[in-house]
Amino acid sequence: MRILILSFLALSLFINLVGCSTNQGNTSVLKIENGALTYEVDGFLQTKISSTLPGTKTLMPTYQSSEKITVNGKAIDRFDHHETKESTIADGLPGRQWILRGLYEKEGIGIQKTIRLTTYDSFPDLVSTQVSYTNTSSVNLILENWSNNTYRIESQNDEPPFWAFQGNSSSARSDWVKPLEPGYYQKNFMGMNDSDYGGGIPVTSVWRKDINIAVGHLALAPKQVSLPTEVFSNPMEARIGIQEDFNDHTVWKPKDTIQTLETFVSISTGDYFASLTKYSELMQAKGITMAEPEDASFEPIWCAWGYERNFTLNEVIGTLPKVKELGIKWAVLDDGFQIAEGDWNANPKKFPQGNIEIKRLVDKIHDNGLKAKVWWTPLAADPGSKVLREHPDSKIIQEDGSPQYITWWDSYYLSPTKDATIAHTKETIHLFMEEWGFDGLKMDGQHMNAVAPDHTLEHPNNSFEGVPAFFQMIYDEARNIKPHAVVENCPCGTCMSFYNMASMNQAVSSDPLSSWQIRHKGKTYKALVPQTAYYGDHVELSDGADDFATSFGIGAVLGTKFTWPKDNPNASGKYLLTPEKEIIWKRWFDLYNNMMLSKGTYLGELYDIGYDKPEGHAIQKGGVLYYAFYADHWDGDIQLKGLEENKTYLIRDYYNNETLGEISGAKAVYNGSFEDFLLLEVTPK
Predict the structure, then answer these.
(1) By the 8 A CB rule, do 298 and 598 touch?
(2) CA distance 463 to 265
(3) What are the pLDDT digits (tens) for 278-315?
(4) Of 453, 502, 461, 505, whose CA–CA distance to 479 is shortest?
């Protein structure tokens, strides 16, 4: 039986509340209006959310038990309200705060509940919640979980009933954005979900055609909580919330207090873009600092991974003139150069002269007028690797005494907060960037998103919560060596941890399974880190292995892993740049370098990525609007959103260099047909 060590709040704060029962029932004891969000609390400390946004319908018809605690197998969700206090927040983030207190006493269980509700002046349409529970019983209780901001949202009979963004990661590498139908459930645990997969963005955003409601937590470090999403059929409702589950037989002693994370609910119109934008801006206002954009991170990329691990030095060097000819600016040395994960020196089987051969390769890349980036998988160490031979205690050890294993790499996890791991990592960065001369890092692997608690530490969760600081150390070290270094974080197939985004200057779609994933991952990053370059990954991973239009239209950096003049016979795919392909590749890279839409402002609130058809995206650059529409086939009206009422615009299909006419007004509609994509340039006259 594990004893939970909890902070103690003196019961004297609440002694005046005991025995003061209320019969307020569903009568509102508090009504908060912040922007268009109305947040009401009744006499049982239950809540109701509503909206004054134009055209929005009912979210929930009655008060709901949105914050509750489960003890001894019983969910405690109704507390008799006793007191409300209101105050103004002047320091830090100005706003207003309400403290509500209530009491539960039944069947030998006594619990006092204190809710702190906060609105921030700079963040309308959002209310944050933090709850404290004190065990006023005379006996130990068994804690199971707490949950905050749990809401059942009515369907308005849209088709589909709901769309959702969910920020968890798992080995399924599933879509982050998807339609929801009855019978749907996803736990969205933010800890480790598989041996290699964990972490993510602690926000769930569910929307109908008329309104979006988002919930999440506001801790400044990753936390092992869940954000479950479920859809019911009778009545048709979606349920969302935040929940922390305790270990079996977690004891809650009399007079001890537990406190939830600060969580939030927000509303908006459209899809999830506005919700994630507001979440990121609030987190930054609370103290998270995002990396500054780096010009070089917006330049197009060629990666030697087309030759895969069995590449030869001659193959890479021989491709560089073609890379330069196509207008590509970066060349990436990928996996296969190293002795082992955890021993990053040149493999003598491939480089008989050792590290000097990789330095010569970097010189060749520079001689071709290109920048050089090197692949790397930090936090992974193969059995028998140099770092584990010298520092066997640098591994993460799980609760059962076994090391945490990275299945994908057949490696062990290094513990990110241990001195040996940090020293090994710094040594590797200096090898790459000082000795070899690389200009950037391609950090790769789904295991980078999160790690398990390390039970060799006094506080095991320090390893899980210490991952962001580890990557900040990498970013700082690389930029200290080369002030304009590009640091790419590619957590293969995962929904990248929001907390790791602060220490990179190039995001990537990260092994997408479809063009749809490239687009909605791009929209996600552009909401959370709008100034950071977003790389669409190798075009060979898109639909048809040639869908440059997907990356181009959403303002992503273009990239490719073509081989030339022939395929590597040991590679798994056909990546040869044929003469026919070369014409297409050259056209897209020329267009990219000329237009640089990746540096424009992505207007993510204009189009609902779920309900609007065709799927639409828009970028503003230099007073011109660039639209991208996607569908297997489209023939009909297309609304061009974001235009001004009293202006006339020229429309041009910029991919085909075809003038399409003029259009006027804020509700302008263009009637057209296309297959797969349509890219429009709309310029005011």
Answers:
(1) yes
(2) 29
(3) 999 999 999 999 999 999 999 999 999 999 999 999 99
(4) 505
